[in-house]
Amino acid sequence: MKKIFILFLIINMLFLTSCVSKNEYTNNFFTMDTPMSITAYGKNAKEGVTKSISYINKLDGLFSKTLSQSEISLANSRDGSAYVFSETVSALISKSVEYSKATDGAFDITLGTLTNLWDTKAENPKIPSEKEINEALENTGYQNLVPNGTYVLFKSPLKLDMGGVVKGYACDGVYKILSDYDIKSAIVNLGGNIYVKGEKPDGTLWNVGIKDPRNDDQNAIIGYISVKDTSIVTSGDYQRYFIKDGIRYHHIIDPKTGYPSESDLMSVTIICPSSTMADAYSTAVFIMGREKGTEFLEKNNIDYILITKSKEVIVSENLKSSFTFEGKEKGYIYEK
Ligand code: AMP
Ligand code: MG
Fold first, then answer.
1. Ligand 1 within 6 A of 109 CB?
2. Structure confidence at residue 120 (pLDDT)
3. 108 pocket-lining for ligand 1 (C-beta < 6 Å)
4. Ligand 1 centre and the CA of 283: distance in Å?
5. Contact at 8 Å (CB) between 324 and 206?
């Protein structure tokens, strides 16, 4: 009798496992110059993920700075002083200008000329001359960008770079698509811009690792947070960079200097339901640095995990009970 019961249990477990895996669908793909992955659960998982990927590809076709026929590239090579965008692109431009105002200009999508100069992805990246940087700086500044519906006025010959916000925007869009497909549980990872939808299928929280900014192993973390239904976005000086003469030149540009930001931070993680906002603010807070950045986030009631160059880990009060620290052996310091 006992044997039969155990056999019954095993069959039952196998059946359950196959149900779970049947309803789980993962796709790893590469777009927006970044490796991405989406795992969704539920009977429409495959359809929801497939639709999400074609949506992200469509966004890339609109916002890419490198695809020559994208709206952003066409606007960047415009003749006149204005450009008429599609509703999708102009809406994100307007939102980005709001983020610039809110962050006192730390976040700025008009740095295209500068980010072209600081091409961290080039095979042999080079340090631009001071002259080049000063000239490029003259053609930046969100104040020179005046959106009026889909019509956007460029008051100087500036170029747009939406790389600091578009992956967050894509995450929010994917969340909506997955909801339309009635998918209640999913994890979306668009190159470090993560969205966890609902809880895990077994009803527990998602554990999302916080990357060790000084270990090239993609799986090296300094801890993790246990969360549900939120976005987790990280900006760091380790994501795209080159080192020359011992100096790290990374991809987050301080709009005031035209050089990679020299703040006291190595990484900024923002946790909030709007991934678009989290993306813009993680970039901005990285530039603001610890003191100004925490003041800004506290004022706006936004959760965060900062890692300073002296390896201190700073976690917002509200998030402390969800954070598990694992960085001690790696020299990180965390005071609860
Ligand atoms: P993120 O990884 O979201 O912090 O964004 C960094 C990317 O945004 C860079 O690769 C640039 O394309 C762009 N970027 C760099 N500096 C800024 C800035 N100060 N404001 C907005 N976007 C920026
Ligand atoms: Mg960003």
1. yes
2. 82
3. yes
4. 6
5. no
Query: In this structure, what are the phi and psi dihedrals at residue 41, rounded to the nearest 5 degrees?
Result: -125, 145
What's the pLDDT tens digit per position in 176-208? Answer: 999 999 999 999 999 989 999 999 999 999 999
Q: What is the pLDDT of residues 33-92, one digit of tens each?
A: 999 999 999 999 999 999 999 999 999 999 999 999 999 999 999 988 999 999 999 999
- Specify the 3-state DSSP secondary structure of 121: coil
Phi, psi torsion values for 163, nearest 5 degrees: -60, -20
Ligand 1 near 111 CB (within 6 A): yes
User: Which residue, by CA, sits nearest to atom 1 of ligand 1?
Assistant: 164
Rounded-to-integer distance, Cα 217 and Cα 248, Å: 18
192 in contact with ligand 1, CB cutoff 6 A:
no
Determine the Cα–Cα distance for residues 207 and 230; give it in Å rounded to an integer.
12
Q: Kindly report the three-state secondary structure assignment for every residue of 6-55.
A: HHHHHHHHHHHHHHHHHCEEEEEEEECCEEEEEEEECCCHHHHHHHHHHH
Residue 275, ligand 1, Cβ within 6 A: no
Torsions phi, psi of 46, nearest 5? -65, -45
Q: CB of 161 closer than 6 A to ligand 1? A: yes
Distance 120 CA to ligand 2 centre (A): 16
Output the CA torsion 261→265→271→277 (10° steps). -10
Residues 134-150: tens digit of each pLDDT: 999 999 999 999 999 99
Number of alpha helices (DSSP H) and beta strands (DSSP E) in the chain = 8, 17
- Look at the pTM and tell me if it is higher than 0.90: yes
Q: Is 211 in the pocket of ligand 1 (CB under 6 A)?
A: no
Beta strands in 32-190 (DSSP E): 34-41, 82-84, 145-148, 151-154, 185-190
For residue 331, pLDDT over 50 is answered with: yes
Distance of CA 6 from the midpoint of ligand 1 (Å):
57
Cα(115) to centroid(ligand 1), Å: 8
